[in-house]
Design a protein that fits this description.
Helix content: 10-25%
Low-confidence stretches: 119-132
Radius of gyration: 15 Å
Shape: flat
Mean pLDDT: 78
Number of helices: 2
Strand content: over 45%
Largest sheet: 7 strands, antiparallel
Oligomer: single chain
């Protein structure tokens, strides 16, 4: 049963884990998901190239968090280069919150944005500075 699962142990064992989709509603055209992965170490944050993916739908997710908490929430469902994922699952796949042996922490931002042409400041994903 889902209640008997330990998401922290599952994640450490490499199992795909992030939450169960409970329902879905198609997204309107013209919206995308912007992602930004960064690493934080010693007060310095380095950013990977931001990416933009098509928004497919809004989903109600029984989200699982590393600490073992669960929360039902609405999230974007989007198409990456290889698969369809929701925001919580994407964060898990990218290692959000992980700290490596050197003390570097991985941060992952996922934001819904208008068509990329309307976004003037691409590196601002995840900082609440989106323009559109």
């Amino acid at each position: 049963m889902l209640e008997d699962r330990d998401p922290v142990v599952d994640h450490l064992n490499g199992e795909r884990y992030g939450g169960k989709v409970l329902s879905l509603i198609p997204a309107p055209e013209g919206w995308f998901v912007g992602t930004q992965v960064s690493q934080l170490k010693g007060g310095t944050e380095t950013y990977e190239e931001p990416k933009v993916y098509p928004l497919l739908a809004w989903v109600l997710v029984d989200a699982m968090f590393r600490e073992g908490d669960r929360k039902t929430q609405v999230e974007p469902l989007f198409l990456t280069e290889v698969e369809i994922v929701h925001a919580t699952e994407f964060r898990w796949q990218q290692g959000a919150g992980d700290v490596d042996e050197d003390g570097q922490r991985t941060l992952v931002a996922v934001d819904v944005i208008p068509a990329p042409e309307a976004v003037a400041d691409v590196p601002s994903y995840g900082k609440g500075n989106l323009k559109g």
